[in-house]
Write a structure and sequence with these properties.
219 residues, alpha/beta, 5-stranded parallel beta sheet, 9 helices
Length: 219
């Protein structure tokens, strides 16, 4: 059976790594985030008010294309960050912070809402949740020059928007993963647990969660 799974979560939480590991383990096609190809990203981090609209439009177009490609792909696919996050988390945060004008934000939202109506939703969103301390540590470890200015307050704001979005999202099931406590890079057992929960969720089980006791046994 063909599946469409999207991996969601804040900057530095480990989405790309999990996508690559899951694609190898489950033989799914990975659709990785195109951020390294965004020609506006370096400028965006240096001057958000000037470059927010252009950067968000670029991300939206790439994410929409990836979403459509996964939907049309003959086999199962897994996406690094969903199209919903672009609008509901990042564009909204830029608007709330005053980096996107009211006019630009309305234009962006109208484009997003019209285009997403024509897209089938994923079968599952895997939502990686992590504390700001964990995010900062992982961002520092990967040493991307354009991310050096990302601070705790910004990540905290995004975390709150993610929580609000996940609570209200109804287009498909969400599996919440405690990324602070699961190191699926170093420990195969941690990845095994995530895979088993994904399979449970895709099989239609209503209540699928990571119990503190079972996670603790792995650490």
């Amino acid at each position: 059976m063909k599946w469409f799974v999207a991996v969601a979560g804040n900057i530095g939480v480990g989405k790309s790594t999990l996508v690559q590991l899951l694609s190898a383990r489950l033989d799914w096609t990975p659709f990785l985030e195109a951020e390294v190809q965004n020609p506006y990203l370096v400028d965006f981090y240096q001057d958000m008010p000037t470059w927010s609209f252009q950067s968000q439009i670029f991300f939206l177009s790439r994410r929409l294309r990836a979403h459509r490609e996964i939907a049309d792909h003959p086999a199962s696919g897994i996406q690094d960050r969903s199209v919903y996050e672009d609008a509901e988390i990042f564009a909204r945060n830029l608007y709330l912070e005053g980096h996107l004008t009211e006019r630009d934000y309305r234009t962006y939202r109208e484009l997003y809402e019209v285009l997403t109506k024509f897209l089938p939703p994923p079968d599952l969103v895997v939502f990686l949740r992590a504390s700001v301390d964990t995010l900062l540590q992982r961002i520092a470890q990967r040493s991307r020059a354009y991310e050096r200015g990302i601070g705790a307050e910004y990540l905290s704001q995004l975390n709150q928007l993610y929580e609000d979005w996940a609570e209200q999202f109804t287009l498909c099931p969400i599996l919440s993963v405690p990324a602070d406590n699961l190191n699926y890079v170093l420990h195969d057992a941690h990845l095994d647990l995530i895979v088993s929960k994904i399979r449970d969720k895709l099989s239609g089980k209503e209540e699928v969660r990571f119990e503190a006791e079972e996670v603790a046994k792995l650490n």
